[in-house]
Amino acid sequence: MPTESPTAELGASASAFTLPATDGRTYTLESLKGANGLVIVFMCNHCPYVKAAMPNLIRDARALTEIGINVAGINSNDATVYTDDAFDRMIAVAKEWNLPFPYLHDETQDVAREYGAVCTPECFGFDRDLRLKYRGRIDASRKEALPDARRDLFEAMRAIAEHGEAPEVQYPALGCSIKWKP
Description:
The protein is an alpha+beta fold. The chain has one domain (3-177): Glutaredoxin. It is 29% helix and 22% strand. The chain contains 5 helices and 10 strands; from the N terminus they run E-E-E-H-E-H-E-H-E-H-E-E-E-H-E. The protein has a 5-stranded mixed beta sheet. A 3-stranded antiparallel beta sheet has the order 1-10-7. It is globular. InterPro entries: AhpC/TSA, PRX-like1, Thioredoxin-like_sf, Thioredoxin_domain.
């Protein structure tokens, strides 16, 4: 049963964090920020919704970087139960997909809780001042990629970079629930 993200409290400030990434570095919220904003995507390795969205996410991450918006992926799943989401598997997935953005490990799940993330893939789009302007989906793809789907995340973030506001209509993310530790 898929999980849908709730509506967002737009305008909220991004919460600071420090997390290790699959490239061997450690990133902070500030170090990830682009000149025009930041997209944080809660994602994981095993979710069929994430797997289907990956080509479009990678395409959009590259395009967003060109307009000064950085992207970071965060995996917060309990890897003791979902072993495909273990850090060593994250490293393999990042290499396999040649991810053009840092893929971070939220082992304590504190970051997912702080952001109120509920599913994968779920996107949080912040403006240049790290204020939340978008929360929702990458596009209308579900367990299969829709190559001609409207690029909801990209279009919203482009509007944010250009004039500071995302479209009023934002579609919730839909995917696998985050796998919480007991």
